[in-house]
Structures are given as structure tokens and as C-alpha cells.
Amino acid sequence: MSLADIRAFWQMKLDLKDKEIGELQAQLAKHRWIPVSERLPENTGDYQVSNGIWIERIWWDKEWIEQDGSRWPYAKKITHWKPITLPKGVEK
């Protein structure tokens, strides 16, 4: 085996690892906490919200809403949110 073959082999291994790292980073980006200063949800639905101390599940429809339809009193304290993601095969 030549030195060029060895280099090509290890470069192929590095390229595969880079691809795996990119895929894992994409998965992490899907599940990250999004600062409300960055943006608010685009779609109506259930979301996890946090102020850095507590985590709550709340409904979003252009504002944070209680289950009874009233405006959520702690909405101004929310600093981060993220979509609720369930494991594969589990439905809401």
C-alpha cells in the first residue's frame, strides 16, 4: 500500500465523520431552545416555553394562551421556546 493510498483512506474516513457531524448538528438545531428575541413561533400549536427557571407547555396562536382560551399571565416572562417533539411512533 502506498502513502497516497493511506492518505486517501484517512481522508475518506475524515469526510465521513464530517458528514456525520453535520447530520448531528442539524438534528440539534431542530431541538434547540429559540430565544423570543430571535423570533416567535410561526404556526399555531403546543410549545414548550421557559424563562430559564421553569419549563411549561402552552398553546401559541399569535400569543401565548391558557387551555381555557384566556391570555397566559406569564407571557412576558418567557425568554425561550421550542416545538414539542415526540419520539418516533408516538402521537400527540
SSE blueprint:
Layout: H1 3-30, E1 34-35, E2 45-50, E3 55-60, E4 64-65, E5 80-83
Antiparallel strand pairs: 1-5, 2-3, 2-5, 3-4
- The computed structural class is alpha+beta
Q: Going across the biggest sheet, name each strand in turn.
A: 1-5-2-3-4
Q: Based on DSSP secondary structure assignment, what is the total number of beta strands?
A: 5
Question: Average pLDDT, to the nearest integer?
Answer: 86
| Helical content (DSSP H or I, runs of 4+) | 25-40%
Number of domains: 2
**Approximately what portion of the residues adopt beta-strand conformation?**
15-25%
N-to-C series of helices and strands: HEEEEE
Which geometry do the CA atoms define?
elongated
Largest sheet: 5 strands, antiparallel
Q: What is the count of DSSP helices, taking H or I runs of 4+ residues?
A: 1
Query: Which stretches are poorly predicted, pLDDT < 50 over at least 5 residues?
Result: none
Distance between the termini: 56 Å
Radius of gyration, rounded? 21 Å
Describe the protein's architecture and organization.
- There is one protein chain.
- The protein is α+β, with helices and mostly antiparallel strands and about 90 residues long.
- The protein has two domains: about 1-30; about 35-90, no CATH class.
- The protein contains one helix and five strands.
- The protein has one helix at about 5-30; strands at about 35, 45-50, 55-60, 65, 80-85.
- A five-stranded antiparallel β-sheet has the order 1-5-2-3-4, with no helix packed on it.
- A hairpin with a 3-residue loop joins strand 3 and strand 4 (about 65).
- The model has no long low-confidence stretch (mean pLDDT about 85).
